[in-house]
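can u do me a favor
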Protein backbone atom coordinates (compact mmCIF):
# COMPACT_ATOMS: atom_id res chain seq x y z
CA UNK A 1 0.00 0.00 0.00
CA UNK A 2 1.18 3.51 -0.79
CA UNK A 3 0.95 6.49 1.58
CA UNK A 4 0.95 9.61 -0.56
CA UNK A 5 3.05 12.58 0.58
CA UNK A 6 0.86 15.17 2.30
CA UNK A 7 1.22 18.71 0.97
CA UNK A 8 -1.42 21.38 1.59
CA UNK A 9 0.43 23.82 -0.68
CA UNK A 10 0.87 21.77 -3.84
CA UNK A 11 0.38 23.37 -7.25
CA UNK A 12 -3.20 23.00 -8.47
CA UNK A 13 -4.03 21.50 -11.84
CA UNK A 14 -6.17 23.84 -13.96
CA UNK A 15 -8.02 23.39 -17.25
CA UNK A 16 -9.62 26.14 -19.27
CA UNK A 17 -13.29 25.46 -19.96
CA UNK A 18 -13.05 27.53 -23.12
CA UNK A 19 -9.83 26.46 -24.96
CA UNK A 20 -9.06 23.32 -22.83
CA UNK A 21 -5.51 24.48 -22.15
CA UNK A 22 -4.05 22.85 -18.99
CA UNK A 23 -1.53 24.32 -16.57
CA UNK A 24 -0.66 24.41 -12.86
CA UNK A 25 -1.23 27.29 -10.46
CA UNK A 26 -0.24 28.23 -6.92
CA UNK A 27 -2.52 29.66 -4.19
CA UNK A 28 -1.51 33.31 -4.78
CA UNK A 29 -2.31 33.03 -8.50
CA UNK A 30 -5.67 31.42 -7.68
CA UNK A 31 -6.46 34.20 -5.22
CA UNK A 32 -5.93 36.77 -8.00
CA UNK A 33 -7.81 34.58 -10.50
CA UNK A 34 -10.89 34.50 -8.25
CA UNK A 35 -10.82 38.31 -8.19
CA UNK A 36 -10.67 38.34 -12.02
CA UNK A 37 -7.09 39.65 -11.97
CA UNK A 38 -5.71 36.54 -13.72
CA UNK A 39 -7.00 34.50 -16.66
CA UNK A 40 -6.26 31.45 -18.82
CA UNK A 41 -2.63 31.91 -20.00
CA UNK A 42 -3.65 30.79 -23.49
CA UNK A 43 -6.99 32.48 -24.32
CA UNK A 44 -7.40 34.94 -21.41
CA UNK A 45 -10.79 33.56 -20.28
CA UNK A 46 -11.25 34.66 -16.67
CA UNK A 47 -13.44 33.50 -13.77
CA UNK A 48 -16.51 35.51 -14.74
CA UNK A 49 -17.91 33.34 -17.54
CA UNK A 50 -19.41 29.87 -17.61
CA UNK A 51 -16.50 28.42 -19.66
CA UNK A 52 -14.07 29.65 -17.01
CA UNK A 53 -10.92 27.70 -16.11
CA UNK A 54 -11.50 25.24 -13.27
CA UNK A 55 -9.52 22.70 -11.27
CA UNK A 56 -8.49 19.54 -13.11
CA UNK A 57 -6.34 16.52 -12.22
CA UNK A 58 -2.84 16.96 -13.69
CA UNK A 59 -2.03 14.61 -16.54
CA UNK A 60 0.77 12.73 -14.80
CA UNK A 61 -1.35 11.91 -11.70
CA UNK A 62 -0.95 8.17 -11.15
CA UNK A 63 -4.63 7.84 -10.19
CA UNK A 64 -5.65 7.94 -13.85
CA UNK A 65 -4.33 4.36 -13.73
CA UNK A 66 -7.16 2.09 -12.49
CA UNK A 67 -4.76 -0.37 -10.87
CA UNK A 68 -3.24 2.39 -8.69
CA UNK A 69 -6.59 3.36 -7.14
CA UNK A 70 -6.61 0.25 -4.93
CA UNK A 71 -2.93 0.64 -4.03
CA UNK A 72 -3.16 3.94 -2.16
CA UNK A 73 -4.69 4.81 1.20
CA UNK A 74 -7.79 6.98 1.10
CA UNK A 75 -9.12 9.26 3.85
CA UNK A 76 -12.43 10.42 5.24
CA UNK A 77 -13.55 12.56 8.19
CA UNK A 78 -16.85 11.96 9.94
CA UNK A 79 -18.71 12.74 13.15
CA UNK A 80 -19.58 9.03 13.39
CA UNK A 81 -17.40 7.06 15.80
CA UNK A 82 -18.00 3.82 13.92
CA UNK A 83 -17.94 4.92 10.26
CA UNK A 84 -18.89 3.33 7.90
CA UNK A 85 -21.49 1.57 10.01
CA UNK A 86 -23.61 -0.83 7.97
CA UNK A 87 -26.11 -1.17 10.82
CA UNK A 88 -26.45 2.63 11.06
CA UNK A 89 -30.07 3.74 11.55
CA UNK A 90 -30.47 7.16 9.88
CA UNK A 91 -33.77 7.76 11.71
CA UNK A 92 -32.15 7.45 15.16
CA UNK A 93 -31.24 11.15 15.24
CA UNK A 94 -34.68 12.40 14.12
CA UNK A 95 -37.16 13.79 16.59
CA UNK A 96 -40.65 12.28 16.77
CA UNK A 97 -41.97 15.48 15.23
CA UNK A 98 -39.68 15.16 12.18
CA UNK A 99 -40.60 11.50 11.81
CA UNK A 100 -44.27 12.44 11.86
CA UNK A 101 -43.67 15.11 9.22
CA UNK A 102 -42.14 12.42 6.96
CA UNK A 103 -45.19 10.24 7.47
CA UNK A 104 -47.44 13.14 6.51
CA UNK A 105 -45.74 13.38 3.07
CA UNK A 106 -47.34 11.10 0.49
CA UNK A 107 -50.23 8.77 1.00
CA UNK A 108 -48.75 5.31 1.54
CA UNK A 109 -47.16 6.07 4.94
CA UNK A 110 -43.75 4.86 3.74
CA UNK A 111 -41.97 8.20 3.19
CA UNK A 112 -39.77 7.78 6.25
CA UNK A 113 -38.77 4.28 5.17
CA UNK A 114 -37.86 5.48 1.67
CA UNK A 115 -35.84 8.39 3.06
CA UNK A 116 -33.99 6.03 5.42
CA UNK A 117 -33.24 3.62 2.56
CA UNK A 118 -31.90 6.52 0.48
CA UNK A 119 -29.63 7.59 3.35
CA UNK A 120 -28.30 4.04 3.69
CA UNK A 121 -27.42 3.68 0.02
CA UNK A 122 -25.91 7.10 -0.59
CA UNK A 123 -22.31 7.24 -1.72
CA UNK A 124 -19.42 7.56 0.70
CA UNK A 125 -16.75 10.08 -0.27
CA UNK A 126 -13.05 9.30 0.04
CA UNK A 127 -10.11 11.52 -0.84
CA UNK A 128 -6.60 12.56 0.06
CA UNK A 129 -5.64 13.28 3.67
CA UNK A 130 -5.70 16.97 2.76
CA UNK A 131 -9.21 16.72 1.28
CA UNK A 132 -10.50 14.90 4.39
CA UNK A 133 -9.10 17.55 6.76
CA UNK A 134 -10.38 20.40 4.58
CA UNK A 135 -13.81 18.77 4.47
CA UNK A 136 -13.93 18.76 8.27
CA UNK A 137 -12.86 22.42 8.43
CA UNK A 138 -15.56 23.31 5.89
CA UNK A 139 -18.21 21.47 7.86
CA UNK A 140 -17.10 23.20 11.05
CA UNK A 141 -17.43 26.65 9.48
CA UNK A 142 -20.46 26.13 7.25
CA UNK A 143 -22.69 23.66 8.97
CA UNK A 144 -22.66 24.48 12.66
CA UNK A 145 -20.65 21.36 13.38
CA UNK A 146 -17.90 23.28 15.17
CA UNK A 147 -18.63 21.58 18.50
CA UNK A 148 -18.95 18.03 17.15
CA UNK A 149 -16.34 15.37 17.80
CA UNK A 150 -14.75 14.41 14.47
CA UNK A 151 -12.87 11.25 13.49
CA UNK A 152 -10.21 10.76 10.83
CA UNK A 153 -10.40 7.46 8.92
CA UNK A 154 -7.75 5.83 6.76
CA UNK A 155 -9.39 3.55 4.22
CA UNK A 156 -8.15 0.49 2.34
CA UNK A 157 -10.23 -0.37 -0.71
CA UNK A 158 -11.30 -3.92 -1.37
CA UNK A 159 -9.21 -5.79 -4.00
CA UNK A 160 -12.58 -6.33 -5.68
CA UNK A 161 -13.54 -2.65 -5.81
CA UNK A 162 -15.04 -2.23 -9.29
CA UNK A 163 -13.82 1.05 -10.75
CA UNK A 164 -15.64 3.20 -13.29
CA UNK A 165 -13.16 3.98 -16.12
CA UNK A 166 -11.73 7.50 -16.25
CA UNK A 167 -11.64 10.54 -13.96
CA UNK A 168 -14.82 12.60 -14.13
CA UNK A 169 -16.03 16.07 -13.40
CA UNK A 170 -17.75 16.21 -10.01
CA UNK A 171 -21.47 15.82 -10.76
CA UNK A 172 -23.01 19.18 -9.87
CA UNK A 173 -26.18 17.83 -8.28
CA UNK A 174 -24.62 15.78 -5.54
CA UNK A 175 -23.73 18.19 -2.80
CA UNK A 176 -23.92 15.81 0.12
CA UNK A 177 -26.28 13.06 -0.94
CA UNK A 178 -25.70 11.04 -4.06
CA UNK A 179 -26.90 7.68 -5.19
CA UNK A 180 -23.94 6.02 -6.88
CA UNK A 181 -26.30 4.09 -9.16
CA UNK A 182 -27.00 7.39 -10.93
CA UNK A 183 -23.42 7.69 -12.20
CA UNK A 184 -22.21 4.06 -12.27
CA UNK A 185 -23.14 1.16 -14.52
CA UNK A 186 -24.53 -1.85 -12.59
CA UNK A 187 -21.85 -3.82 -10.78
CA UNK A 188 -19.45 -0.86 -10.42
CA UNK A 189 -18.94 0.75 -7.01
CA UNK A 190 -16.01 3.19 -7.28
CA UNK A 191 -16.34 6.50 -9.14
CA UNK A 192 -13.37 8.90 -9.55
CA UNK A 193 -14.00 12.63 -9.72
CA UNK A 194 -11.99 15.84 -9.61
CA UNK A 195 -12.41 17.47 -6.23
CA UNK A 196 -12.82 21.21 -6.85
CA UNK A 197 -13.63 22.14 -3.22
CA UNK A 198 -11.14 20.33 -0.99
CA UNK A 199 -7.50 19.74 -1.90
CA UNK A 200 -8.62 21.18 -5.25
CA UNK A 201 -7.56 19.24 -8.37
CA UNK A 202 -6.99 16.02 -6.39
CA UNK A 203 -8.86 12.82 -7.19
CA UNK A 204 -11.71 11.88 -4.84
CA UNK A 205 -13.86 8.76 -4.87
CA UNK A 206 -17.56 8.15 -4.43
CA UNK A 207 -18.01 4.53 -3.35
CA UNK A 208 -20.55 2.18 -1.83
CA UNK A 209 -19.53 0.36 1.39
CA UNK A 210 -18.85 -2.80 -0.69
CA UNK A 211 -15.81 -1.08 -2.19
CA UNK A 212 -14.20 -0.67 1.25
CA UNK A 213 -12.24 -3.49 2.85
CA UNK A 214 -11.13 -1.99 6.17
CA UNK A 215 -10.59 1.27 8.06
CA UNK A 216 -8.46 2.68 10.86
CA UNK A 217 -9.79 5.66 12.83
CA UNK A 218 -8.71 8.23 15.43
CA UNK A 219 -10.56 11.13 17.10
CA UNK A 220 -9.41 14.55 15.87
CA UNK A 221 -8.13 17.15 16.54
CA UNK A 222 -5.28 15.48 18.44
CA UNK A 223 -4.75 16.30 22.11
CA UNK A 224 -2.54 19.35 22.66
CA UNK A 225 -0.18 19.89 25.58
CA UNK A 226 -1.92 22.40 27.87
CA UNK A 227 1.49 23.56 29.15
CA UNK A 228 2.58 24.84 25.72
CA UNK A 229 3.58 28.54 26.10
CA UNK A 230 1.18 29.76 23.38
CA UNK A 231 -1.73 27.93 25.04
CA UNK A 232 -1.00 29.48 28.45
CA UNK A 233 -0.56 32.94 26.92
CA UNK A 234 -3.77 32.64 24.84
CA UNK A 235 -5.72 31.37 27.88
CA UNK A 236 -4.46 34.34 29.93
CA UNK A 237 -5.59 36.74 27.17
CA UNK A 238 -9.11 35.23 27.19
CA UNK A 239 -9.37 35.43 30.99
CA UNK A 240 -8.17 39.04 30.91
CA UNK A 241 -10.68 39.95 28.15
CA UNK A 242 -13.51 38.34 30.15
CA UNK A 243 -12.95 40.92 32.89
CA UNK A 244 -13.15 43.93 30.54
CA UNK A 245 -16.26 45.91 29.57
CA UNK A 246 -17.51 45.66 25.96
CA UNK A 247 -15.54 48.01 23.67
CA UNK A 248 -17.32 51.25 22.73
CA UNK A 249 -18.73 51.19 19.16
CA UNK A 250 -16.56 53.31 16.87
CA UNK A 251 -18.55 53.50 13.63
CA UNK A 252 -22.21 54.27 12.84
CA UNK A 253 -22.65 50.66 11.73
CA UNK A 254 -21.29 49.34 15.02
CA UNK A 255 -23.61 51.68 16.93
CA UNK A 256 -26.63 50.32 15.05
CA UNK A 257 -25.96 46.73 16.12
CA UNK A 258 -28.23 45.61 18.90
CA UNK A 259 -25.66 43.53 20.70
CA UNK A 260 -22.09 44.72 20.58
CA UNK A 261 -19.42 42.00 20.59
CA UNK A 262 -17.86 41.62 24.01
CA UNK A 263 -14.15 42.13 24.65
CA UNK A 264 -14.03 38.37 25.19
CA UNK A 265 -15.51 37.39 21.81
CA UNK A 266 -13.24 39.98 20.14
CA UNK A 267 -10.22 38.34 21.76
CA UNK A 268 -11.39 34.86 20.72
CA UNK A 269 -11.68 36.07 17.12
CA UNK A 270 -8.17 37.55 17.30
CA UNK A 271 -6.75 34.24 18.52
CA UNK A 272 -8.53 32.42 15.71
CA UNK A 273 -7.09 34.84 13.13
CA UNK A 274 -3.57 34.45 14.55
CA UNK A 275 -3.70 30.68 14.23
CA UNK A 276 -5.33 30.91 10.79
CA UNK A 277 -2.39 33.04 9.62
CA UNK A 278 -0.06 30.10 10.24
CA UNK A 279 -1.98 28.01 7.67
CA UNK A 280 -1.49 27.95 3.89
CA UNK A 281 -3.24 30.86 2.15
CA UNK A 282 -6.02 28.73 0.65
CA UNK A 283 -7.07 27.40 4.07
CA UNK A 284 -7.03 30.53 6.24
CA UNK A 285 -10.69 31.40 5.75
CA UNK A 286 -11.65 27.84 6.71
CA UNK A 287 -10.52 27.84 10.35
CA UNK A 288 -13.50 28.30 12.66
CA UNK A 289 -13.55 26.76 16.11
CA UNK A 290 -16.75 27.83 17.82
CA UNK A 291 -15.88 29.82 20.96
CA UNK A 292 -18.03 28.91 23.92
CA UNK A 293 -17.75 31.62 26.59
CA UNK A 294 -19.25 29.28 29.20
CA UNK A 295 -16.30 26.89 28.86
CA UNK A 296 -13.97 29.62 30.10
CA UNK A 297 -14.90 28.85 33.71
CA UNK A 298 -14.78 25.05 33.40
CA UNK A 299 -11.83 24.63 31.00
CA UNK A 300 -10.23 27.98 30.11
CA UNK A 301 -7.63 26.44 27.78
CA UNK A 302 -10.20 24.53 25.69
CA UNK A 303 -10.52 27.07 22.88
CA UNK A 304 -6.80 27.74 22.30
CA UNK A 305 -6.15 24.00 22.47
CA UNK A 306 -8.84 23.30 19.88
CA UNK A 307 -7.46 25.97 17.53
CA UNK A 308 -3.93 24.61 17.88
CA UNK A 309 -5.13 21.02 17.49
CA UNK A 310 -6.90 21.87 14.22
CA UNK A 311 -3.89 23.76 12.86
CA UNK A 312 -1.59 20.86 13.81
CA UNK A 313 -3.53 18.53 11.50
CA UNK A 314 -2.37 20.79 8.66
CA UNK A 315 1.11 21.72 9.90
CA UNK A 316 2.12 18.29 11.21
CA UNK A 317 0.17 15.59 9.35
CA UNK A 318 2.71 12.92 10.32
CA UNK A 319 1.55 13.13 13.95
CA UNK A 320 -1.94 12.02 12.89
CA UNK A 321 -0.63 9.42 10.43
CA UNK A 322 1.63 7.92 13.14
CA UNK A 323 -1.36 7.57 15.47
CA UNK A 324 -3.36 5.90 12.69
CA UNK A 325 -0.46 3.44 12.18
CA UNK A 326 -0.92 2.31 15.78
CA UNK A 327 -4.64 1.58 15.32
CA UNK A 328 -5.95 -1.88 14.38
CA UNK A 329 -7.72 -2.27 11.02
CA UNK A 330 -11.47 -2.79 11.31
CA UNK A 331 -13.13 -4.81 8.54
CA UNK A 332 -16.14 -3.13 6.98
ZN1 LIG B 1 -8.25 29.17 -22.34
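np, heres the sequence
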Amino acid sequence: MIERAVNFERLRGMRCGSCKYEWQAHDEWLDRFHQADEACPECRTDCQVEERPDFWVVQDDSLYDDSKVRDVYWYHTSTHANWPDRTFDPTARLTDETKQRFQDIGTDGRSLERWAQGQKTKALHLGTYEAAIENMLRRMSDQDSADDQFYLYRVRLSPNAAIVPGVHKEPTDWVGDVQLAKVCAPGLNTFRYVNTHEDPSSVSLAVTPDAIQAVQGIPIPLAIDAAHPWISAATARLLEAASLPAPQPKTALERMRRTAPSALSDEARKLEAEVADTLPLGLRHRLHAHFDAASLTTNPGAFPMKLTGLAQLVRDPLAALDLLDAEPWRDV
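The longest helix spans residues 129-142. hope that helps!!
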